[in-house]
Specification:
Length: 223
């Protein structure tokens, strides 16, 4: 599904690609933005910066509360909010001029290994929080409603990260390929609507990924 892998350099014998360096860059940039944005916060907002931050946090909290309830949405907000912002930023890397052709800059979520890593992170977190909050009752749920449902329940859990990763990868990769093909055929005007659709799809895919993740968290932690 991907082109031949080209490594920029190696670290301890491990090849580093443009998508890896892009993710490192996103982590640094988002980390710096978060650090600067959350400095000197006041109990009562005194400027636009804190007001915007609180609006974003409230929007995410209200969104996840619709699935998890307020208490659990507040508990999972750091994980889900970080995942949403990182995926959204990754989806939009392709709009940077020269992305894909400049070494070191490439869309991370247009690679299945990246989306699979994100999905596996959600899978591991789901099992961890399920056991942490419910204990043996969570493991007992794999044998519900009858004992011989165990294999099917395990398959269902195993399919979830595959579905999450392929959905995100397929939409972002497909959107990039479509835009690139149209741009090569008709370099003016026609690709513009496709780019706007790609912006919309990038946002929708970030929402869908984190929404499904919140559903998995709800099922794992719901009594």
């Amino acid at each position: 599904m991907d082109q031949e892998v080209e490594y920029l350099f190696e670290i301890f014998g491990l090849g580093v690609t443009s998508r890896v360096t892009t993710m490192w860059g996103l982590i640094v940039v988002l980390g710096l933005i978060s650090f600067i944005a959350t400095r000197n916060l006041k109990r009562i907002p005194e400027g636009k910066r804190q007001t915007i931050i609180e609006m974003v946090v409230d929007a995410l909290l209200n969104f996840f509360s619709g699935v998890l309830g307020f208490e659990r949405a507040h508990y999972f907000l750091p994980f889900l909010g970080t995942m949403f912002i990182f995926i959204l930023a990754s989806n939009y890397v392709g709009f940077i001029p020269g992305a894909g052709s400049i070494p070191g800059i490439d869309t991370p979520t247009a690679n299945w290994s990246v989306t699979a890593g994100l999905a596996l992170t959600v899978f591991v977190a789901t099992q961890f929080y399920g056991i942490k909050r419910r204990g043996p009752a969570y493991l007992k749920g794999f044998f519900q409603p009858v004992f011989f449902m165990l294999p099917l329940n395990l398959v269902e859990q195993a399919v979830r990260p595959l579905s999450l990763s392929l959905r995100l990868f397929g939409n972002i990769y497909g959107g990039e390929m479509t835009a690139a093909a149209l741009l090569s055929l008709v370099p003016y005007l026609l690709p513009v609507p496709i780019m706007f659709l790609s912006i919309l799809f990038g946002f929708i895919q970030a929402v869908v990924f984190t929404l499904l993740s919140s559903v998995y968290f709800y099922e794992a932690t719901h009594e």
